[in-house]
């Protein structure tokens, strides 16, 4: 067995927690000092603003250069300052500036996939490419054209090894700095790959810094020119590199795996597929056959069924499905009827929350209908992006990407599952983030000319 597989097994505590919740209810002890909660109603008390908890050392595996990033920071003031600085890159205005490029890129993906048919196409790898490209366009401010030219990018290999890196360094933190020197290839390989990507990314940041302010990537300009209030200075090259790479990991695999699950779940259910096709046909009668004008984002964002499909995919296949542990820092903390002492680790996992039958009746079933209508219990219970001061910073960006790709893909193509596609290929493999185990979504695509 590979070292990585052994570690993977060690980290499979999320399944055990889910089993305990199924057997014993919403509140279970899953470690000598750790309590897991699975009722969406309890989430504000754990993750909300002002709650006296901090991320645990579990997160230390998420760094790349040795510097902390926004995701791994565990000092409150340090994180608040970085969050304030980074939020500028995720505000509505800079995100909306990216929309025309994202629409064009998705259209390019449709052309590429069309050129690969007819017959079986594994769209999984293409979804990863476009997910990576969206984040590279956002952070580095340039389009690497991976989809159009079918070219390689150094980040792609790094994305593949990151889950193992995260897992092993969560258990053996010293490997973060010494992993490249371990004399066994199966251990040092992911660290070597990561080191070369860090060096490459650092050279890009250095290059950006030499440019006139107006020519820099807006994302990098903000981080290199605006002060981080905790550091009382703008970020240095290595800190910017750390934030770019961590954004890449937080944002690309999560979104593309969500898309992979969504494409499969919609195509596998004839009724859901027809409802979505009908909504898209009515909203966009002309593109792509009678007009080159791409669908408008404002229109895409208002489509009720499309957005219900996205929410249901985020619920049924949460790509951050596992434990998000926090340590209590005040003398005690009350969560529901339980009062827990300082130092206790409290956690919840989206997989268990999203299977809560009180909020999601018949929770196993992929059913976008549960998100239609105004005040549904399902909307209250959805926790895909977590919440509060450590909730997902890229939430708006992720939803934007999901809306654009889902709308354009299902409007452009008539989609069928390839006869060789198997349900078990979509079992979720989890190493902090979740993705389809077989890395296959096998589809038959035909341009929709109606
Ligand atoms: C479907 C896609 C996504 C899902 C399901 C998701 C989910 C989450 C969740 C659950 C957390 C909290 C994790 C924890 O506390 O352990 C988180 C944090 C975070 N996410 Fe996302 N995310 C997605 C996409 C993105 C994107 C596109 C970006 C950026 C480009 C991003 C950036 C971040 C960052 C920076 C944090 C850490 C925030 C902090 O600690 O202040 N995510 N995400």
From TrEMBL:
Residues bound to heme: 392
A GO molecular-function annotation: iron ion binding
Keywords, ordered alphabetically: Heme, Iron, Metal-binding, Monooxygenase, Oxidoreductase
InterPro entries assigned: Cyt_P450, Cyt_P450_CS, Cyt_P450_E_grp-I, Cyt_P450_sf, Cytochrome_P450_monoxygenase
Cofactors demanded by this protein: heme
Pfam family, one: p450
PANTHER family associated with the record: CYTOCHROME P450, P450, PUTATIVE (EUROFUNG)-RELATED
Family label: Belongs to the cytochrome P450 family.
Protein name according to UniProt: Cytochrome P450
